Structures
1.
Amino acid sequence: MLCIQTSNLTKKYGSSLAVDKIDLEIKSGQVFGFLGPNGAGKSTVIKLLTTLMSPTEGHLTVLGIDAAKSPLEIRKKIGVVLQQPSYEMSLSVENALDKYGMMWDVDKKTRKKRTEELLTSFGLQDIRKKKNDDLSIGQRRRVQVAREFMHDMELLFLDEPTVGLDPSARRELLDFLKKQVQKTGMTIFYTTHVLSEAEYLCDNIAIINKGKILAVDSPNELKNRFGHEKTIKINLTKTSSSLSDLLSDIPDCKVELEPEPIITINSSNSEVVLMNILKILNQNNITINDLSAIPTNLEEIFLKVVSDSNEPDN
Amino acid sequence: MNPIIRLVYRNLTISINPGFIIWQILFPLIYIFVAGFAYTSLIENVPFGNKDLSYPAFLASGMIGFNIMNSTLISGIIIWNDRRNGMFEQIMSGPYTRSDYILSNIVTIGIIGLVSAALIAAVGYPVFFESVEFSIITIPLLIFASVVGAILFGSIASIISTRLRSSEGFNVIINTVFLFFAFASTAFYPAQGAPQPLAIAFYINPLSYLVDIVRAGIFGQMTDFVIMEMIFLIVLASALFVIATKLLTKLDF
Ligand SMILES: Nc1ncnc2c1ncn2[C@@H]1O[C@H](COP(=O)(O)OP(=O)(O)OP(=O)(O)O)[C@@H](O)[C@H]1O
Ligand SMILES: [Mg+2]
């Protein structure tokens, strides 16, 4: 089933274009990653999809409901953790969770049970009596994310939820999210700047820049599509000062002598380049200590896709 | 549970704290007793309708009107904090509409206004019991004053809180406006004997009308003038409510 569908979705702030004719189709039951540089339009898309704002142009359907016709019906079925902090100043952590559940009309017994579960899952037991003002930034963020799980939902929007979280809290959150998707079949729309996070968590990823979607696919497919250039590193046992001269005719390779002699190949034809280098090394009796191929990661693909889209002819 | 009731419950939980109760209940009571008796020697009996009210009785009944206005500050503070703390966006992306939000604020201040008016009436009773004249219109008039006052002043507080960006500005402006309403009204002093310009200010001030209606209820002095004041307040409150709603609806994220 399609969870989110947009066509020609456009949002202008005054005369500046924040979202530019986006067509998206997102299937239910997955974590969908939304990546893009600062100001790309990620948060604006979330505000449109959660009906906080109306689009300047275009059409969107969320959970099969037309956003222009019944925004409230959509909002009843989704959860949102926005990018900016949001909290009740005067409430303690446990009270904040409970009151948030009350605002979603969750009955008292369920609220009590969920509050306990979430305090544990989000590592908030020790600070349950503290007021928001007395929490650290990361703790506040954890409360903000935790409280969204007080209510049931079919679709959850998370706008950079891990900002300010320490590495273990980060990993715990990602695992918690994975488990929720498995358990409930919910869909998560997830934005982040940490690409390893997206790679770990997301089933599919869209890359957006300047309000336009540049690519949508699974992390592996994106790597296949954009990761033509393979990187291979050759560590040598000892330095040979003539090494640079010997390899000067071979394209796409780089020689470093310090701190240890390394040849790096970065080419869409890495295998061929490697063969040529090996031949020269062999002819000159230079021995190899170690040879490794570095898998392309999402970060490189992201940088490439975004920088390609920033070229003037785009 | 109905969405508006849920929001009202939330508003009451987040805004009722010891500081607020002191401001809302204790301060007016102390004022009634201390100022009421201290100024009795300066201000003789105050004529109201066909009655002569002692100054403490006059002040205590005025304090009820003042308190109805003052409790609407809470609505401005709630809207202001919700915007600053990100809760406005959070609520608006949840199972609520903007009108749920606005109505819940009005109901919240209506409840706070009514409860504090009732408390002040009960505790202040000894100072005006001589002139009290309960009738079938007493309670309806007090409720009318609480509800219309909540909408009128609540809309003003809400307009101010949606128009401003800095928190210092918010506190200064809202307190100045309300202080002006309070002291240029007949809540604390009678218009008779006041200098001409002040007396005029008293009668272009909606709080004076509100206070008149409260007094009419407590002292049983219903006149045509009071009816006109009621109509005026209804018209003004409706107009301000429409403006406040429009501004809140236009508020962008
Ligand atoms: N309220 C606003 N008024 C005017 N322009 C805005 C407003 N909000 C966002 N913009 C502009 O719209 C564009 C998209 O902003 P948006 O917040 O969606 O970016 P983002 O992808 O979420 O960035 P970040 O990674 O920094 O959170 C930016 O150019 C921004 O300057
Ligand atoms: Mg953003």
Note: The pocket of magnesium ion (ligand 2) is lined by residues A 42-43, 83, 159 (CB under 6 Å).
2.
Amino acid sequence: MKGTFPRIPSGCSITGILNKKAKRFSGADVIRSIRLMHDRSNGLGGGFAGYGIYPQYKDHYAFHLLYTNEASQHDTEYFLEKNFVIDRCEPIPTRPHPRITDTPMLWRYFLRVKPYVVEQFSSSHNRELVKSADEADAEKNFVVSQVMEINQKIGGAFVASSGKNMGVFKGVGFPEDIGEFYRVEEYEGYMWTSHGRFPTNTPGWWGGAHPFTILDWSVVHNGEISSYGINRRYLEAFGYHCTLQTDTEVIAYLFDLLHRRQGLSLENTCLALAAPFWKEIDRYPEPKREAVTAIRQVYGSAMLNGPFSLVVGFTGGMIGITDRIKLRPLVCGQKDEVVYLSSEESAIREICPAPDRVWTIRAGEPIIVKLEEGVQP
Amino acid sequence: MMRSLVSPDFLVKIDHRQCRRCKRCVQGCGFGALSFQDRVVPDNTRCVACQRCVAFCPEEAITVVRNPLAFKGNDYWTANDIKSIYKQAEAGGMLFTGMGNDRPYGSYFDRMVLDACQVTNPSIDPLREPMELRTYLGSKPNALEFVERAGGAGSGGPGADMAPLGATLATRLGPQVALETPIIFAAMSYGAISLQAHKALARAASLAGSLMNTGEGGLHKELYPYSDRIIVQVASGRFGVDQEYLDRGAAVEIKIGQGAKPGIGGHLPGEKVSQEVSQTRMIPEGSDALSPAPHHDIYSIEDLSQLIYALKEATRYSKPVGVKIAAVHNVAAIASGIARAGADFVYIDGFRGGTGAAPTMIRDNIGIPIEMAIAAVDDRLRLEGIRNQVTLVAAGGIRNSGDVAKAIALGADVVAIGTAALLAMGCHLCQKCNTGNCSWGIATQRPELTRRLETEEATERLVNLLRGWSLELKDFLGALGVNAIESLRGSRERLRGVGLNQVELDVLGIKPCGR
Ligand code: SF4
Ligand code: SF4
């Protein structure tokens, strides 16, 4: 079933909440926030990413899997056992919900990579690894390859998330219903992002809902990446296979490639993905002009073009960013140590009636919020 | 003696009641097809349908018509085949021609359509929003490295809300030439075309932020003011190549082959080697300028690599050095070799590419369409992870901005136009450039003919063409919902095939329409 769906354009609502002191809070807030924007989605997809939700397994790769049949589960588990130590494996807890039907089998696994496999992998895949100086990175490259392989090769299996101490809960339905179905309010995290989807046509596939992830990157996205075709071809050269046929997927991979693997700072990664116009760049003082010019020259194929607003989550922070001419909305709010990002101000005020500050994000200029100095996620 | 069996291709009809006997047409014809003996007398056998007389007759007294079928109809033995045989039977030589392959092979450009946005992703209005066409010619690394600036926080450090660019660029990019539009002029030599035409190309390139290409004929002093907009070519004849020539170029191009005549050399007849041409090419006046088929110092990819680096050394690594090849069957592997040999750009010339003179059989029967070549090369370079290493310039039969957009969507960075540029200057595609008699003052060195090409006017027409196509490119981008050319480049998802079979679709890497 993979790769057979046509790409689906969609409009959407997005929300992100981060506590900069890493205080954990229930997923109930993010459900309320996204519920308010009910009308921005049409019941064909919703989802949540929670960070800090698995403190007891914080050093494990938490794999959330969707299976359409038992064979796919069997094949996936067989595949995982080869290279991972599975320290825990269980169905993801859900509750029956009147509006959530046709649910796939939902499982999660807490995994450690077996010691020797990374070395083997690194030596056989050298060419694709642009930069994998340290071991942790090499291990992550390996995990990426495993996710790609499951998504690409095991029919009926789909990895919803694969990061450490984070997890994605998504499916077909209105986001608030999906939240209730997954009992999201029972988890506590220091950061939550959420998405309500309005696809113009859908195969009703759970894997097609947001957030999209790779490792601990998660992306919720309102809009359409008109440059998807070249972004996808660019990523393929680096071993990322876009099997989900949805434009959002490329965003998560681009962050992984540019920031984690190639070592660009988050700021520079954002400059590559939502590059300033040449007219502006030409006016920058040196050496900034030279640097940003180089970013556009080198990463032109990574630039995201078309309407979008995004909330990108990663361990310890989140990024809010829009396309360079801001064809989709994004509002930022702040109250004490909590930062909010949302498609609508109302969705912030719904859970934080008196924010210290609320402002709209400027076109193409990223908001990068991280945990306060010294705070451990 | 038997009269020539070769019947005229065209008939010149003079309406003698309209004609006021001004003789303008007689002077205008570069091919000597008209003479005056108390009235205008055409010699049909010489007419090439360049339309100069028609365009300049003040009385609209001339029409040129195709000679109505002189042979019995035959779908296999065309009139062209029969006449060619007569010609060769009479003269015993090779057939020669000018301009590009005109055979009915069809066009893949005409079998591809572009996408547009509707509702879900809005189209962008190019009249209101910026649309960026800027493109850089030159090799780019796969990734950039930054070093942290003292006092700036590193990426990923917890709580580091650092200002953008809290780091300094550590990677040094190779030389880059900025183009304000991804359309440049193809290589055409002074000698093949007139100095007037050459100057017009250089000036237009300079005004439009584009590039012209000297071809293999050296660089005339009058083009020096525009040298930051000129690619200087080093071909197998090495005409006009010295240190100053290399220093004058914005980029250097090694010419291995040309779409119109892959695998064979060039020949500029001595008659065309005027004093000026001889000085520019650095060869004796009136001598034939022969470019050998291969470079006599390049018999392998290692040899090519040596020349690339010799030229880089000679120019102190200050400008991109590229290689031009004809699109042939194995073009992808060759291009990959060229990239690995150290070239900063690869220029691929498809089988529709024009020429000042080529053996007709070579032109019409060798090479592959540029569309397929772009797709194959772009795929191969990506597969090998070296796509960023070279700028891919595509040429050979680009007729309009639609072709440009499609070539870029297939994977070209830059598109070069030759024939289209000549047309802009007034060429009527009579395909007789090889005779040196161009009535339009373009493909000739005869002073009485070159004089009539006004450099000023030709420049303006070229600039207009680039401007028109660039505006149309921006319109394409807007319709596609993107506002920078790099978002179209290689984005084959935005192309669909019409009436192509599965193998062709696979090679082009596109889906059929409806999918
Ligand atoms: S240019 Fe026209 S009017 Fe003048 S001589 Fe020729 S046919 Fe007659
Ligand atoms: S350049 Fe002159 S000779 Fe060549 S095709 Fe054009 S009009 Fe004819």
Note: The first helix of chain A runs from residue 28 to 36.
